[in-house]
């Protein structure tokens, strides 16, 4: 994805408050909003869609890295930049809202959301398009794609801000209100319902642009013989947000509280309509969508590939990694030749193995995560035997023996067993460990690091607060 097609993220990032306003942005050698609003050629659609995916790709690293460091999985050992340890491993209020950590994963997702809104408007209004007009089904497929991406961005935002809330943009120049977590989850769920409706209406129609190679299997709106399609991706995200909604009572009361079963059952229904597949093979569990990186001129390399500063937290190995676990072997470099490194009292001699190369992909969502989401949902519905079957699928693929019901003395013990499998299955690719421990009200069980308990959430960025005269209480 070359710089010439990154105009969506660049344009939105120029806004003083990228999150909530609809600014007038100078051209800067890129198309104006008026030009974006009028599609006359399919090449414009390609550029818009590619720009959306690239905009999300630019967000992916910090979205994964910040939570994984807070969750005691990654260490940034950079002697020239103490902010990572001071902030992400600091006391709850150590992340400055005016610094890059506090402002991280904010403008980027809102830039993608803004770009998606422009895309949807342009597709809807498209008239004569060369070399061939857009069919109604192609328009539905394109709108469903953009709505799904919007939902993904809002999910990234609320996963990191949690009870601080995030604005739900409505268009226009007025500041959108900051909505509290339950309202944001509801908005994401409704957005995904709209996406699914569009994609089902499109049927077995491909989106009117070429997807990146690792998204190619998801180019069809609603395939006739498979759920590995865009509708299946939207349903997977729907399952995830309904799980979050179902476990809200546990956020403060802990695992002994009663989840909202209606949301959890909705999550199961969505999983069944998604690309979820209960298989125990590595290839089957790896089905999903990924962001890719290259070393070509003007391209983005995988930010995890800097082995001079990116280390695995030793707790990944010492807190329950099992001998023979193929996931650990694939993801963590434990070679005895690695020289231990210490920065600000934090030490590691373990490096990342996957991802570690400039061209290694990072998953957006894989079937393995869906299998483990199903385990969590089944646990919440007291269907423990079925939840156990789910974790044994991933254990089998990891080369490990199955767990028995007798391995878990209590219902709570089974939950922690699920979370352990999720840690190693999604290591270095997901925010889920931090998000899950907070969701189940057991954040403190992540343990102390640098003498501090884990921080619960990132702040609302200072620029956002300033634009609101300091009024950032969610509603």
Q: Which descriptors apply to this entry?
A:
disordered N terminus, alpha+beta, four-stranded antiparallel β-sheet, 18 helices, 475 residues
How many individual β-strands?
10
Q: Give the strand content.
A: 5-15%
Content-based structural category: alpha+beta
Q: Separation of termini?
A: 38 Å
Describe the structure.
The protein has 475 residues and is an alpha+beta fold. The chain has 18 helices and 10 strands. Strand 7 and strand 8 form a beta hairpin. Mean pLDDT is 92; it is low at 1-30.
Topology:
Layout: H1 7-13, H2 33-36, H3 42-70, E1 74-76, H4 83-88, H5 107-125, H6 136-161, E2 166-167, E3 178-179, H7 181-202, H8 230-246, H9 248-253, H10 261-273, H11 282-285, E4 288-291, E5 310-312, H12 315-318, H13 326-331, E6 332-333, E7 341-343, E8 346-348, E9 350-352, E10 362-366, H14 367-380, H15 384-397, H16 411-425, H17 432-439, H18 462-467
Antiparallel strand pairs: 1-5, 2-3, 4-10, 5-9, 6-9, 7-8
Helix pairs in contact: 1-5, 3-5, 3-6, 5-6, 6-7, 6-8, 7-8, 8-10, 8-14, 10-14, 14-15, 14-16, 15-16
Briefly characterize the structure.
The protein is α+β, with helices and mostly antiparallel strands and 475 residues long. It is built from 18 helices and ten strands.
């Amino acid at each position: 994805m070359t710089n010439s097609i990154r105009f969506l993220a660049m344009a939105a990032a120029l806004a003083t408050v990228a999150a909530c306003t609809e600014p007038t942005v100078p051209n800067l050698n890129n198309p104006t909003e008026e030009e974006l609003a009028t599609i006359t050629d399919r090449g414009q659609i390609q550029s818009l869609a590619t720009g959306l995916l690239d905009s999300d790709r630019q967000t992916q690293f910090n979205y994964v890295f910040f939570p994984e460091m807070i969750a005691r999985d990654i260490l940034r050992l950079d002697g020239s930049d103490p902010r990572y340890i001071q902030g992400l491993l600091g006391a709850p209020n150590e992340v400055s809202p005016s610094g890059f950590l506090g402002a991280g994963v904010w403008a980027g997702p809102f830039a993608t959301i803004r770009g998606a809104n422009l895309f949807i408007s342009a597709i809807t209004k498209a008239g004569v398009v060369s070399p061939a007009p857009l069919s109604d089904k192609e328009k539905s497929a394109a709108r469903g794609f953009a709505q799904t991406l919007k939902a993904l961005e809002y999910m990234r935002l609320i996963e990191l801000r949690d009870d601080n809330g995030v604005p739900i943009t409505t268009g226009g120049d007025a500041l959108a209100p900051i909505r509290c977590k339950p309202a944001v989850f509801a908005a994401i769920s409704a957005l995904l319902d709209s996406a699914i409706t569009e994609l089902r209406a499109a049927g077995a129609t491909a989106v009117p642009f070429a997807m990146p190679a690792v998204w190619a299997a998801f180019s069809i709106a609603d395939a006739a013989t498979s759920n590995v399609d865009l509708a299946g991706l939207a349903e997977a995200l729907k399952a995830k947000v309904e799980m979050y909604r179902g476990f809200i009572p546990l956020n403060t009361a802990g695992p002994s509280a009663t989840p909202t079963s209606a949301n959890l059952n909705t999550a199961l229904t969505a999983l069944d309509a998604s690309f979820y597949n209960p298989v125990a093979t590595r290839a089957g569990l790896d089905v999903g969508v990924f962001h890719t990186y290259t070393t070509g001129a003007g391209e983005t390399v995988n930010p995890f590939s800097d082995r001079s500063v990116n280390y695995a937290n030793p707790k990944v190995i010492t807190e329950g990694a099992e001998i023979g676990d193929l996931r650990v072997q694939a993801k963590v470099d434990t070679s005895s030749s690695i020289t231990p490194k210490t920065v600000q009292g934090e030490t590691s001699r373990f490096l990342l193995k996957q991802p570690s190369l400039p061209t290694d992909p990072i998953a957006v969502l894989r079937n393995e995560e869906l299998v483990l989401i199903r385990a969590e949902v089944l646990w919440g519905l007291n269907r423990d035997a079925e939840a156990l079957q789910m974790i044994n699928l991933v254990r089998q693929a990891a080369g490990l023996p199955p767990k028995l019901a007798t391995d878990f003395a209590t219902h709570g013990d089974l939950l922690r067993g699920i979370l352990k499998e999720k840690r190693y299955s999604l290591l270095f690719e997901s925010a889920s460990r931090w998000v899950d421990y907070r969701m189940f009200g057991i954040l403190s069980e992540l343990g102390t690091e640098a003498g501090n308990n884990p921080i619960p959430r990132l702040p609302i960025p200072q620029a956002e607060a300033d634009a609101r005269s300091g009024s950032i209480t969610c509603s």
